Amino acid sequence: MLALTIPQQILDDMIAHARALAPHECCGLLAGTEGVVTHQYRITNIVANQGAGVAELFDPAKVASLARLSPDEQADIAFWMDAKDMFAAQKDMRAKGTAMLASYHSHPISPARPSPTDITALAMYPDLAHVILSLENPTHPVVNAFRIADGTATPIPCRIA
């Protein structure tokens, strides 16, 4: 994917999603065709409840840090998408004839760029765009998109229509 176009209405809903869940990270999927997003799917962030499965996605230092935090604190700095929500979204995409174009998640207190954990966890999806929404400045959210592959995050154009 060379570029991603997100309609203003969907971006506004993503920002509302991020604000509603702050200080926790929100997460979701974006679907459409030919790089143009037509549907947004809010996915539950279950990192606080997933337990050992989360450890497989994070480096040992991050796992040790997460283990010392309460479930609410864990959800502030990490996300794990609920499988049931993801399957429901994918079923809806098939019914609508759209394709998954991107995942998205928020950074409530950090910039709109992939963290080392994001790069590790999202590298398994190199064909998707990964959209990060920063609420670091709550009155001026920032959105950036990346392709993550081979341990590298490469910015991709993200146009708001």
Q: Judging from the principal axes of the Cα atoms, what is the shape? A: globular
Tell me the β content: 25-35%
Order of strands across the biggest sheet?
3-2-4-5-6-7
Helix count equals 7
Major beta sheet summary: 6 strands, mixed
Q: Which consecutive residue ranges, at least 5 long each, have pLDDT under 50?
A: 69-76
Q: What's the order of the H and E elements?
A: EHEEHHHHHEHEEEE
The overall number of domains is 1
- Overall CATH architecture: 3-Layer(aba) Sandwich
Task: Report the structural category.
Answer: alpha/beta
Question: What does this entry show, briefly?
Answer:
By secondary structure, this protein is an alpha/beta fold. Helices cover 36% and strands 30% of the residues.
Can you characterise this structure?
The protein has a single domain, classed as Cytidine Deaminase, domain 2. 36% of the residues lie in helices and 30% in strands. It has a 6-stranded mixed beta sheet, with helices on both faces. It has a two-stranded parallel sheet with strand order 1-8. Strand 2 and strand 3 form a beta hairpin. About 5% of the residues have low confidence.
